[in-house]
Design a protein that fits this description.
It contains five helices and five strands, in the order H-H-H-E-E-E-E-E-H-H. It is an alpha+beta fold. A hairpin with a 7-residue loop joins strand 1 and strand 2 (about 130-140).
């Protein structure tokens, strides 16, 4: 029995020994063959995809629908638009060229009435020194090189206002500290309001706002000081929305103010100043100046 088992196992042992010897004698050939197969496989993978071959799905595009996209609108500073009834268009065209050259030196940011600004100017009474003033913009007026804006702040209980010329060469920097709009186009009534509404820290740090976010509108309504005021803000011609008239005027006074209302002016077509063609022409000039 043992002899039979030994006899049958002999050929198997010899066959296994022959495989081992072949593996020892030809190690390089096997590696070359494997490399050839691998290289052939790589060439097939880099070649054009065959019909029916596997193709990975496209990458998904994630869109945040929770935040509305900001409207892509161009901001044209109001001083670029000439006043109505202009008599010399060439004069305003030459002024716009000077304004664009000044903007290449000084960065004038986009700002509105209600923004808190910090303006750095050269001190005319001290050579080589500068002065800063921080306040809320209460008015923008003028056109062309004569454009101005007024900043107001209350310092040590005293209201201080400075009127800056927008294209004055003494201005070194205009920094927007806080971006927010108000309910009215002019905030001159802050002169007659309580001081707390025009008091800001001179060391206030800038408040950042994301680029895709709209400029917020502050719905604040101020409380006024007792009369007399500098102007009759309750009359409809001012169209003031940011004052709490119910706290400082009686019903009889509000009815008396409504006598000055002129509702027919709303339907006067001649009062409307269409500037669409002018804005398109000015935008062409701005783009030409940027390319040059």
């Amino acid at each position: 029995m043992a002899a039979c088992v030994a006899g049958s196992c002999g050929p198997l042992l010899g066959l296994s020994w022959s495989f081992r010897t072949a593996r020892v004698l030809f190690p390089a050939s096997a590696s070359v063959a494997c490399g050839a197969h691998a290289g052939h496989a790589r060439q097939q993978s880099t070649g054009p995809s065959e019909p029916g071959a596997f193709q990975p799905p496209p990458k998904p595009v994630i869109v945040d629908t929770r935040r509305p996209a900001r409207s892509q609108k161009r901001f044209l500073s109001p001083e670029f638009i000439p006043p109505r009834g202009r008599t010399n268009p060439l004069k305003f065209q030459i002024e716009r060229k000077d304004m664009l050259e000044r903007r290449k030196v000084l960065h004038i940011p986009e700002f509105y009435v209600g923004h808190i600004l910090r303006v750095t100017t050269a001190d005319p009474y001290a050579k080589g020194k500068t002065s800063q003033f921080l306040g809320i913009c209460i008015q923008r007026s003028g056109s062309g090189l004569g454009a101005t804006f007024i900043l107001r702040n209350t310092i040590e209980g005293q209201g201080v206002e400075i009127c800056f010329e927008l294209y004055n060469p003494r201005i070194h920097e205009i920094q927007v500290v806080k971006l927010e709009k108000r309910l009215d186009r002019s905030l001159l009534y802050l002169r007659d309001a309580l001081p707390e509404y025009s008091t800001f820290d001179v060391n206030m740090k800038p408040v950042t706002l994301e680029s895709d976010q709209e400029v917020p509108v502050n719905q604040l309504k101020v409380k006024m000081k007792p009369k007399p005021w500098s102007k009759r803000w309750e009359r409809p011609n001012f169209n003031i929305k940011g004052i709490r008239f119910d706290l400082c005027l009686t019903e009889e006074q509000m009815k008396e103010a409504q006598k000055w209302n002129k509702p027919w002016l709303e339907f006067d077509m001649m009062r409307k100043y269409d500037t669409s063609k002018l804005e398109a022409q000015i935008w062409d000039e701005i783009q030409a100046a940027e390319k040059s």
